[in-house]
Amino acid sequence: IVVTPGGGEDGSFLIENYLSAIELVKNCDRLKTLIIFGSEMSATDRGELIKAIDNHSNIITLDFTDCLMSYLQAADLVVSMAGYNTIMEILSLGKKAVVIPRYKPSHEQLIRATRMEKLGLLTAIAPYELTSLNLSQAIVRQLDNFEEATFNLNLNGLVSLRKEAIELLRNHRSLV
Predict the structure, then answer these.
(1) Strand ranges in the chain using DSSP code E only, listed in sequence order
(2) Whole-structure pTM value
């Protein structure tokens, strides 16, 4: 499982809940976890989390990585915030995910995560509904689902946009 709160500035609550959640998972000692704190997490928050993580031999941490895509590719499950870039990386790799979107200062992540959950692309837990219990249940559901994540989602927007623009230009020239 890869756990990433994006930049990390406000992501300590995600990691705290994850640490509590895996304690509720049967055979949690068999789960291997990589937690990537994010470059913007405060030293104080990071230090407190590391103290809690020291009790878990099956968890490794990184402050930051330039190789996030490689770690995501290797993961069976991603637990993360719901930032645009992270969600697109998860979807482009076809990974199972449990996301906890921010809802401040705007509702952008919450709206995206809720809509993507309705499409069956991921599991979303609103931050004001996040508990260790419902996070552990979401993790177990995702890990117990032996089917590979499959998406009926076209991620070729740039290619499609180029084709549409060329077609519009061709049509415009024929009208002139």
Answers:
(1) 2-4, 33-36, 59-62, 78-80, 97-99, 123-124
(2) 0.85
